[in-house]
Amino acid sequence: xxxxxxxxxxxxxxxxxxxxxxxxxxxxxxxxxxxxxxxxxxxxxxxxxxxxxxxxxxxxxxxxxxxxxxxxxxxxxxxxxxxxxxxxxxxxxxxxxxxxxxxxxxxxxxxxxxxxxxxxxxxxxxxxxxxxxxxxxxxxxxxxxxxxxxxxxxxxxxxxxxxxxxxxxxxxxxxxxxxxxxxxxxxxxxxxxxxxxxxxxxxxxxxxxxxxxxxxxxxxxxxxxxxxxxxxxxxxxxxxxxxxxxxxxxxxxxxxxxxxxxxxxxxxxxxxxxxxxxxxxxxxxxxxxxxxxxxxxxxxxxxxxxxxxxxxxxxxxxxxxxxxxxxxxxxx
Amino acid sequence: xxxxxxxxxxxxxxxxxxxxxxxxxxxxxxxxxxxxxxxxxxxxxxxxxxxxxxxxxxxxxxxxxxxxxxxxxxxxxxxxxxxxxxxxxxxxxxxxxxxxxxxxxxxxxxxxxxxxxxxxxxxxxxxxxxxxxxxxxxxxxxxxxxxxxxxxxxxxxxxxxxxxxxxxxxxxxxxxxxxxxxxxxxxxxxxxxxxxxxxxxxxxxxxxxxxxxxxxxxxxxxxxxxxxxxxxxxxxxxxxxxxxxxxxxxxxxxxxxxxxxxxxxxxxxxxxxxxxxxxxxxxxxxxxxxxxxxxxxxxxxxxxxxxxxxxxxxxxxxxxxxxxxxxxxxxx
Lengths: 332, 332
Description:
Chains A, B: It comes from Marinitoga aeolica. Chain A is an alpha/beta fold.
């Protein structure tokens, strides 16, 4: 199959540290022919990482006339406008998660992806981690499952590179880090147990340097009836543990190791072949994007799934500690 | 000080396995002079554990005429009636938790305890565990505290002695085990961080042999602003972990060991002198009851505190997965 002429739009941290290492391994699939960044010097600096002298454009419109696909790694509030422009010019899009600043705008992106024949692929790298597929497979070992709990304590110091992005410090996207990072976790949970029916959430604001709330405790129910409890803070440190409880035991995912713990017969099985840190999920998402452009069904970069990821977080925030919100009521 | 003539009313599992071992160590404070049980043979059998030949009565009224205090260890739905009768006859009362079947009836018991001069002491043994005092003291080591989580997986098999009590199999008390055992946990959390403002809860019913729901996930807020998350099941097994998160680290209470974990300087301090299983909290509560009868303020057996313990659980159940309920709205 032929190489796709790709333009990278937004040459910040995500493009450089996350996407580029994957793309450099996919030189037989993508040729990075074009760069655009609002601050042109950043695009020039980015071009130094490449050997093929991509063209640096002064405008996004001009870039669109010279590529087959764009990789949008922009402040999230620009996603809608940039996706629409690309589609109008017949250009395929891969766009960093979250899909949008809120569900209302996300719905418009879903609409765009239905209206235009070109691909809109939301880059949710957690959907490409095989650990969550393995966890899903292992649930058969613990009998009927009743409860999932995910505690994530992702402490970010004042000098964290993401915390210092201006668009993250004064977020236009709902809940700040709670949605920005949170959609990853929702995507993973949905990968294991499917869609979520409703969410109740309560947030706190601990730090003054992380834009928006930085502690969330939420309860939710999967469509299949499993009760969930997702607790996350970007201001507090600690052990990150995903725990799934069934009638015969637990599945525990901690420190990149999956454990199956059976209490009655005291058996603990370890699975350490699913290390998310060793797995290039960004490369996988670009490979998948390539195949989707070439006709494969868009399951892992689907805008509707990305919208539901964000809807979980928006429901948790709008719940405001008071009452649960149904995902269907938000997204329909 | 003189010995108090005590009657034990309800000679079931709690009286035998929990209260009696403590009372036998307090022979200088209490003399068990009287027993009453609806099924008289059980009272006769119980008398075999004692050396002083207590009198076995055919009626509760008759017993009340011959004692200074009663220990009520009855199916919870009988608490109100039995407490009232004792007070009318000028008899002091120690009564097993929960205070009552629901908040409405609990409020009537609080009223009784205000109206009569004799003592009404609700026996909540968890309030007598020193581990929770130690945890409270250690919170100063982790800076400002933001979050508490308690996971309790207290699997009860079909042949569990408590699960087989008829009044527990067809509970008149709200939420079955969720309140019966749950008030212990609420009392402990309140001992650490004080009163609770509101509770949101969602329950599931996993087994058919435990009366009522047997899985609860709840979110709540202490009056001091700390967010809490209490998850408990009597149908699922697992590790019981109390985790308190502050700006500098965590306090973890697990397997009867208190750990202070500081993430930045990687310090872990262990405190293993507060083993709840080695501590005779029942003896302590009877000692305290004795002192309260002799004029000490009733802090640990206070009916108002016991009512608030139950109100947490009732709020969680009535919340019904839909919306949070304020404790004050329930108890006022």
